[in-house]
Design goal:
Layout lengths: L1 H19 L7 H6 L12 E5 L4 E4 L5 E5 L12 E4 L5 E6 L2 E6 L8 E6 L15 E7 L1
């Protein structure tokens, strides 16, 4: 009889203990830091562009997209992107690894434009391009 009482008491204690174990929850690190980690390369360079380098027959009102190998520090874009010959103002910005630019007015037909990213553009990991990097396209 004493044995059953001991087993019952131990069972209750085990069940009570299991009920009191806290359930795991996401850590602050996983919620705030991990989504920012978007480094896909050990170097910081242009991965791709639209229009592509050397493209012809590009619309006079293109949306220019530049995908980088790492997330971009948005404040480093200020005055670090240029267009030649002189483009209408380019509006846009960056989101994670992508820079999106749109001319405020139509480009000129039959002109080859060169977009240059200054060497000082920086990734969120502190890397810079290191050299000015350009790509060109020709409008319709």
């Amino acid at each position: 009889m004493v044995m059953w009482k001991t087993v019952r008491v131990l069972s209750v204690l085990v069940l009570f203990h299991l009920h009191c174990v806290p359930k795991p929850s996401p850590s602050i690190l996983g919620v705030f830091i991990l989504p920012l980690v978007t480094q896909t390369s050990a170097t910081f360079t242009i991965e791709s562009t639209v229009p592509s380098n050397g493209a012809t027959g590009v619309s006079l009102t293109p949306t220019i997209t530049i995908v980088m190998t790492q997330a971009i520090e948005p404040t480093s874009l200020n005055t670090n992107i240029s267009c030649s010959p002189s483009c209408p103002s380019l509006t846009g910005g960056s989101s994670n690894r992508t820079i999106t630019l749109t001319p405020t007015t139509a480009l000129t037909s039959g002109v080859t434009y060169t977009i240059t990213l200054n060497q000082n553009i920086q990734s969120t990991f502190g890397l810079t391009l290191g050299t000015n990097t350009s790509f060109s396209f020709t409008t319709l």
